[in-house]
């Protein structure tokens, strides 16, 4: 019984880790990030999702302020820009193949089975990718970039929370620890 419990737990952890995304980032290895104290946000590009864009802008300010950075539009140490991309993603096919073995008394057996899911609703899902760029205002050079993606079905409170979590995951890696 202990083995089955352990195997079930292992499968659950693997499935949960597959659902979570890991944000990606890259940065200028020679840049002195310890000198950064203040920021301003650049005017964002027009988007077909203005509600998400507004949420991202507010969340960037919240996260950077919580990290101790001060918003300064007059002479910032770094500029922040972001991009938002929404795409359709095909849903899984729903085809499953299973293989099992078992014993009963002195007998044993092997079984193979398949199942096909019947799609309800749309056969595509939405995926939203957020990219945040940190730019040196003097040289206009990109010094740090982070991005993350998440799936969503509808808007509202759940999407707002997913957007905030994605921005938080991205900016958790800024400034980089050398």
From TrEMBL:
Gene3D superfamilies: 3.30.160.670. Residues 24-176 form the DUF4136 domain. PROSITE patterns: PROKAR_LIPOPROTEIN. InterPro entries: DUF4136. This is DUF4136 domain-containing protein.
